[in-house]
From TrEMBL:
GO MF terms, alphabetically ordered: sorbitol-6-phosphate 2-dehydrogenase activity
Name of this protein: Sorbitol-6-phosphate dehydrogenase
Phylogenetic placement of the source organism: Bacteria, Pseudomonadati, Pseudomonadota, Gammaproteobacteria, Enterobacterales
Pfam name, any one: adh_short
Family: Belongs to the short-chain dehydrogenases/reductases (SDR) family.
Annotated source species: Rouxiella aceris
Amino acid sequence: MDQVAVVIGGGQTLGAYLCEGLVDAGYRVAVADLNEANAKKVANEINSQYGEGTASGFKVDATNEQSVEALARAIDETFKRVDLLVYSAGVAKAAPITQFMLNDFDLSLQINLVGYFLCAREFSRLMIRDGIKGRIIQINSKSGKVGSKHNSGYSAAKFGGVGLTQSIALDLAEYGITVHSLMLGNLLKSPMFQSLIPQYAEKIGIEPEQVEQYYIDKVPLKRGCDYQDVLNILLFYASDKAAYCTGQSINVTGGQVMF
């Protein structure tokens, strides 16, 4: 396979896992992250396992138009094509609405929504230029389908991502480029979720060590969402098997959200 995947937010946690999984599936991967050292570290680890030139690391501030434009140029020069864009950058700040700071709300919109828009715009241009029937996949959240207490900024941005996905899908359908959002359940072992456990414990009124089980009990399939669950669905919607699907918000929630 000569296909190239770009993973925004690929320098750590879920993004890094998706990078390796995509390479294992046959893609070459551009690992893009705000932390350039992390991006290059992930790329170097991939190259040491799969061969030099399989991956390259890049710095990007997804909220900055010039930075995203520069990233697109650099990846175009390095790989000469783009077949798949995965937008995996994200941030969450938790607080009751009466205490939610404007800068935290704006940060959530910028990283979770504006960055997605900028990256989808720039990389779809490359796909159209080269006549590639590519794929754009946003890593979203169940909070983009149901409101989330104390997470107004995150949920607002993720709801916006669903509308943006549908709109981009309509714009790009004539080129055969499909666009989807993956609506993830709680990644209980992720650093983002773990960092919010004290706030969740206070919100719910339980001890911090009880938080994970509290969220597991909400899921019909009785476990949290794993990175591999995300990769499995991502690979399907990136493949030709899903060529007749576009503009979808796909639940990866263990049954916690069913619409």
